[in-house]
Give the backbone structure.
Amino acid sequence: MLRSEDRSASSLWPSTLPPFTLARATLSDFPIALPSIDPPPPLAATEFSGFQGKPSAPTSEPEPEPDAPGSDRYELTLRLERGDTIEKMLADIDVPEADRKQIATKLHALLKKRRLAVGETIELDLQTIPEQPDAPRVLSLSVRPQPERAYIITRRDDGSYTGEEKVYKVSPRIVRVEGVRAGSLQQSGVKLGAPSAAMIEFIRALSYDVDFQRELKEGQKFTVLLEQLVTSDGMVTHPGRLLAGELRLLKRTVTVIRFRPQGGAEGFFNPNGESVVRSFLRTPMDASRITSRFGMREHPILGFSALHAGVDFAAPPGTPILAAGAGKVVMAGPNGGYGLYVKLQHTRDIGTAYAHMSRLGPGIKPGVAVRQGQVIGFVGSTGMSTGPHLHYEFHRGGRAVNPLAQKFAMRATVTGKDAARFNTRVKQYTAQLKNAPVVAENKPAKSAKPSTSRESTGTEVARSN
Ligand SMILES: [Zn+2]
């Protein structure tokens, strides 16, 4: 079913238009109950006595003028429902067939092959004329399927219709959202007008460096810098892409800056130019504890002192083991005392190895590429092992080194030609984090759809069919 939505009374009856003169007889036959004309309240006897043909209630329509120009203009906003067409919609409000055919043809020509989405808002400028009080005349029809593009069909004096495409320029606008954490960091930002996606991106960028369990507290101040896209008439087409963010922790402030190094992927960096993303996971597993560190030790099975060439993480059998970094599988299978074993090559001189697995991850075999965090196997106790654990090795230049000592060396950094550009960006964003205009509080960024950004009096009236 189709539904119509009124606009506010002031826009329904703009002061620039001829005064309202629609006769009551016409109104009662009109298929749409215009919301600005309230249904008459039940009449009391006293009201009959005082009735002099002049409305007394403020909600009643303006006084009819005896010498009315024969036109009554009004606006109407309709939503396209499933299975609807413009023509059917116009037929439903009794627009004469010749007019609706012309309008539909003109609109289709403008839209080319594009289809209007269900829920699309159609704005109509209508006129009731005395000769045909039940069939409104469409003065104009407009639809804006994208914020930057509107299609307008207008009636000419000769009764024909003309179509026009109106394009609005879209440009970026930098705003900030500043607040204190109350509840989740994401919700705190969203409440203040930051898009959820930008907050999630912010949290992800922080997560490599911030220990959310220990360092995050209520009341901590945060600021995010967003780039919105706005049309020339002020409609927000993109609620905001995260450019930078700042979180004040107890003892330090963490700042992340969006940057794309030349020839590289866009990402977040700290102001020193280090990527927030570590090339290698700290721990190639969730939920584990270190049971044996890298270095010389008494071997638990062999009984003599030897170099423990990796780190042992205790975890329940079957716990997924993740690729510490992106790379290529160079070994996958039984490997003596190592048991079921996988070795990954990440760069020419960096590799990681995983031992004592119960089984391999899906598709893991020599030669295949893996992503960081991909499951390459499962914790077991195969080979020379005293219990379920992961033995994890880090190889550099063919030698096993301490994996836990590698974490800071593994960040990508901004270097060379990028450095000057990055430093300028850091200065710009750091300043804007303090002085960019603040997004209106408690007002989520306007939707790209005009239908949701328009004020409505809340009265919805079903169209008759
Ligand atoms: Zn070990």
